[in-house]
Amino acid sequence: MSDMAEAELFGNDEWSVQADGIEHRATGYFIAREVLAARRAEGLWDWPLQMAEKRWCRPSLFREAFLAALDRFGIGRDADLIRSFALGYGIRAVVAPAAEAFVTLADVLQPRQAPETVRAASRQPGRTLVAAGA
User: Fold this and answer.
1) Which domain holds residue 11?
2) Per residue in 33-53, pLDDT tens?
3) Is the pTM of this model over 0.85?
4) What is residue 73's three-state secondary structure?
């Protein structure tokens, strides 16, 4: 690596973002800047799917470094990026184009109303249907 590449642009406990790409600190696994935005035939981002297969790769730290690299290198994000992380690592992303944060599956599946509100609503008397013309 060049001296320019050794200057860390972003780092966390496992990943280092450098001018020429991102590198896993413990293994030396390197993803070059030129291929960060690689896509598969169906439009999904390649690296989130590939890294999901690595047992040594912690999803939250990879995601943090990957997104930081995209920002530093001016690579745009899209809904397929969210889908790629969700498919690779499981349902951890809110499925909306503007969403950036991972959420737990429990958060995704929570009812829209508080349980007390749901129970109170279910105690209301039912409506009586009256036939037209009655």
Assistant:
1) 3-109
2) 999 999 999 999 999 999 999
3) no
4) helix
Give 112 or 127, the one with higher predicted confidence.
127
Q: Is 126 contained in some domain? A: no
How far apart are the C-alpha atoms of 126 and 45, rounded to whole Å? 50
The kind and range of the H/E element at 89 are helix 79-89
Q: How many domains does the chain have?
A: 1
Neighbours of 74 (CB within 10 A): 6
In a domain, 115, yes or no: no
- Strands in 8-11's sheet, in edge-to-edge order, are 8-11, 15-18, 21-24, 30-32
For residue 58, tell me if it sits in a domain. yes
Task: Answer whether residue 77 shows pLDDT above 80.
Answer: yes
Q: How far is Cα 76 from Cα 83, in angstroms, rounded to an integer?
A: 15
Phi-psi region of 69 (alpha: psi -120 to 50; beta: other; left: phi over 0): alpha
15-33 confidence digits (pLDDT tens)? 999 999 999 999 999 999 9
Distance between CA atoms of 105 and 78, rounded to whole angstroms?
22
Q: At residue 23, what are phi and psi to the nearest 5 degrees?
A: -135, 135
- Establish if 96 belongs to a structural domain: yes
